[in-house]
Amino acid sequence: MHVEWRRRDNRQIHLYSRYVMALATVTTVLLAAMALYNLLTPRVSSSHPAPSSSLHLSPAESCSDSCRIVLVESIPEGLEFNSSTTHPSIFQSWLSLMAEARSSLNIASFYWTLTNQDTGTHEPTAYQGETILTKLAELSGTLSVRIAVNTPQDSQPQRDLTLLNHSGADIRTVNMRQLTSGVLHTKFWVVDKKHVYIGSANMDWRSLTQVKELAAVVYNCSSLAADLGKIFEAYWFLGESQSIPSPWPASFSTFYNKDTPLQLLLNNTPSSVYLSSSPPSVCAAGRTPDLQSILSVIEDAQSFIYIAVMNYLPTMEFSHPKRYWADIDTQLRRAAYEKKVEVRLLISCWNSTPPVMFSFLKSLASVYDPKHNLDIQVRLFVVPASPKQKEIPFARVNHNKYMVTDKIAYIGTSNWSGDYFANTAGSALVVNQTASQSLEPTVQSQLKAVFERDWSSDYSTPLTQLTNLKDVC
Questions:
Q1: What keywords appear on the UniProt entry (predicted)?
Q2: Residue 59's pLDDT is what?
Q3: What are the residue numbers of the active site?
C-alpha cells in the first residue's frame, strides 16, 4: 500500500512539474509579446482612448523618415523688400509637387478661381493660376486626383471643378454650413502619401501673384503625409455622409498631438511635429484642436511671440447675436504680463478689413509700458496697389496665417477669430526644433526672419491710439 501511494505521489509530482514548465513557457511567451507590443506601439495622450494599432502609422517608419521642409511664399506683383530673406514661390512649389506625383494627389480647398474667366478679369498675372489648372487637368487623366471642397454658393464659379471632374478628378463637396455653420477653409495637398503642402494660399490665381501668402512644403515624409491624409479622409467622409460621426471611427485617429508629437528629422534636424485641426467636432481621437494648439504655443513661449494673420478679432466674427470671444487675446496679455514675453502682431489692412478690428487691436497695443516690462506692439501691413491692380477684386492683401516663438513655428490656414476655431474647418503644421544642434537653419529661425523682414519693411505701419486708418489703409 505504501508502495502504491509512493507511485501515485511520484506520478503527481511528475505531472505537476510538467504543468509548471508549461506555465513558465506560456508566461515567457506572453511577456515577450507584451514587450514587443510596447516597443512597437507609441504612447497616446491619456485624454483619448488608443485606437487599433493596425490603423496607424508605424513608429519605426516615422523614425526612419528623413524629411525636407521648405518655406514658400507668394509675393504680390510690385512688392519689393530690401532684404535677403527670400523663399521659393508657391507657384513653383505646386508645379514641383505635381511633377513629383506618381500615383495620387489629394487637395483640400475652400474654393477654386484659377482663371481670368473665374474673376471676370483680363490680368496677365493670372497665367500662373491657369497653368496650375492645366497641369492638374492633365494629372487627373493619369493618376488619382481627389478634391474635397467647401460646397460652392450659387454665385461662385465652378468652371475649374467641372473641368477637373471631366478630366478624371474625383470631387466631393463638404457642406460645412449645414454641418457646423462654418466653411471648409483648409488649404493643403497630399501627394503620393509622402509629400505635403499646407498654408494660406487658396486655389486662386490671385494667391500666386496678387496676394501675399506663406506656406510650407514637406517632401519625402510619409509619416507626416499619412497623418495629414487622415484629416483629408475626414473631409472626404463628410462629403459623402453629410453628417459628423460621434465618435469618429478609429481609422481617423492619430497618435500625434501637442502632448505626443511625431519625432522625425526635418532638414537633418531632430524635430517634434504635429498637425492640428478645427473645429473640434471634426477632430478624431488624439487630434489636437487648432485653438488648443495656438494657446499651447503661446503658453510655451519664453521670450517672444510673433504673429502674422490677415484678421485678428476677439469675437465670434460671423455669429448672430454678436459674441465676445477672448481666448487668444487673454492668453497674449497673460504672456506679456506674467512672463514678460515680447508680443508682436502684424495684421493686414485692406478694403475688406472689419473696422471694429482696429478698436480691439488698439486695446491690445495699449499694453505697452517699458517701465513695467510690458511689450505688446501691433503693426498694420498694407500691400500697395496701382490703379489697375485696385480693379482686381479681393486682391492686394497680406493673407499670411502663422506664428513663431522662441520655441515653435506654427503655420496655419485660419484667420484668428472665434468662428474659425469653433465652426470652420482649418488645419495647421506645428514644428519644434529647439533641440537642434544642426548647422541647418531651423524652421523657427526662417519664419522669424520672414516676420522681421515684413515688420521692418516700408509696408508696415505702427498702430497707435492716434492712428488714422484712412491714412494707412
A1: Exonuclease, Hydrolase, Membrane, Nuclease, Repeat, Transmembrane, Transmembrane helix
A2: 46
A3: 185, 187, 192, 399, 401, 406
